[in-house]
Design goal:
Layout lengths: L5 H9 L22 H5 L17 H18 L6 H10 E3 L5 E3 L1 H4 L8 H18 L20 H7 L20 H6 L5 E2 L9 E2 L8
Antiparallel strand pairs: 1-2, 3-4
Helix pairs in contact: 1-6, 3-4, 3-6
The structure holds calcium ion (CA).
Length: about 210
C-alpha cells in the first residue's frame, strides 16, 4: 500500500516534524457550522450529490478544496493568499492557456488515491498558518494527542478544516459592531473590507471615514 502519494507526500515532508505526533483525535463531524459561501462560489462542493461526510476523501478532492480556498483568498485579501499557500498550490497545479489553474499532468494520476489524516493536515496547516498570521484565529484546529496520521481522512474532516470564512462577521470578531472583523481592521487598516470573491462591487463594505486605527 502506498501511504504517501505524489505531491502530498512532498508537502508533508516539509511540515514541522512535531506534526508527526499530532493527530485529530475525535472530530465531531457536525461541529462545523454553515457552509461558507466560498465553497459554492469556488465549486468545491457538489450540491447536487448526497452528503457523505463519513466517506473517504481522495487526493483530487482535497486538492480541489485547497485550490478553491487559494483562489478565494487571492481575490479576497489585499496581499493574496500568501507565499506559502501559493507555493503549495503551485506544486500540483499550473495555469492553462485560459489563465485557469488545472492539475499538472504528472499530479493528476494520484487524484483518485485516498488521502490520510497526515496528508490532510499537511495541506490544512499551510492555510492555518496564514489564518494565524492574519489574526483570524490563534491556533491550529486539531489536537496534539494520538497518532492517527495514517488513518484515512473523511470528507467531513476536510470540510471541517476548510470551513473557515474570511467574510464572516459576528459579535466575537467584530466587537465594535462596525461590520468589519477586528483582524481585518488590524491587518488592513486602510483597505475597505471585501467580503467573498469580489465578483461585484456590492461585496465591499466601506469603513467609516472617522474610524481610528
Ligand atoms: Ca470591527
Amino acid at each position: 500500500m502506498r501511504r504517501e502519494n505524489g505531491i502530498l507526500a512532498r508537502v508533508k515532508g516539509v511540515v514541522r516534524s512535531t506534526w508527526m505526533i499530532w493527530a485529530f483525535g475525535l472530530f465531531i463531524i457536525s461541529s462545523y457550522g454553515d457552509s461558507p459561501a466560498w465553497w459554492q462560489r469556488r465549486g468545491v462542493i457538489d450540491t447536487t450529490r448526497q452528503v457523505d461526510d463519513y466517506g473517504s476523501i481522495n487526493q483530487g478532492q482535497l486538492k480541489n478544496l485547497a485550490l478553491g480556498a487559494f483562489l478565494e483568498w487571492e481575490t479576497s485579501l489585499p496581499d493574496g493568499a500568501g507565499s506559502a499557500v501559493f507555493a503549495l498550490i503551485e506544486t500540483w497545479t499550473q495555469l492553462n492557456d485560459d489563465g485557469q489553474r488545472v492539475s499538472k499532468p504528472a499530479q493528476s494520476t494520484q487524484d483518485y488515491a485516498l488521502a490520510n489524516l497526515g496528508q490532510l493536515k499537511a495541506v490544512a496547516e499551510v492555510f492555518y498558518a496564514r489564518l494565524i498570521e492574519l489574526g483570524v484565529c490563534s491556533a491550529y484546529p486539531w489536537q496534539t494527542t494520538g497518532a492517527e496520521d495514517y488513518a484515512l481522512a473523511t470528507i467531513g474532516q476536510a470540510k471541517f478544516l476548510f470551513s473557515f470564512d474570511l467574510g464572516s462577521v459576528n459579535s466575537t470578531n467584530d466587537p465594535n459592531g462596525n461590520g468589519i472583523p477586528d483582524w481585518w481592521e488590524n491587518r488592513y487598516p486602510n483597505v475597505p473590507f471585501k467580503l467573498g470573491g469580489g465578483a461585484a462591487e456590492s461585496v465591499f463594505v466601506s469603513m467609516e471615514p472617522s474610524r481610528q486605527k
